[in-house]
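2024-03-11 09:14:02 DEBUG pipeline.ingest accepted 1 chain
2024-03-11 09:14:02 DEBUG pipeline.ingest length=125
2024-03-11 09:14:03 DEBUG pipeline.predict start
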Amino acid sequence: MPGITRRRALTAAAAVATTATAATLVAPGASAAGHHEPAAPDSFDEVYKGRRIQGRPSSDGGHHHEHGGAYAVFVDGVQLHVMRNADGSWISVVSHYAPVPTPRAAARAAVDELQGAALLPLPAN
């Protein structure tokens, strides 16, 4: 029986690479079929370190600053723009590089970061 030739080795390697690529391309589609959008977090209204923080699902999904899955957060009545990351964590314009698990935690982190300063509304473009 003759040994493996260079041509046969390259053909086998190409076949394995093609199979692996096809499996990789099919897998995301298969997992996406069972994907569902997580439920909106519960509403909250509390005083945290002397500041009133509120959060609630928002019906204003068309607002161009709305990135939190239609969820609105306020600090002393001023909207804190929040965004939900792909991994389910939340960030705000005040604490953009410190993801937190909930919008309530994002509001509290913003209050901590503001250190008593007022939250200024973002201007509409």
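2024-03-11 09:14:41 DEBUG pipeline.report The first helix runs from residue 6 to 33.
2024-03-11 09:14:41 DEBUG pipeline.predict end
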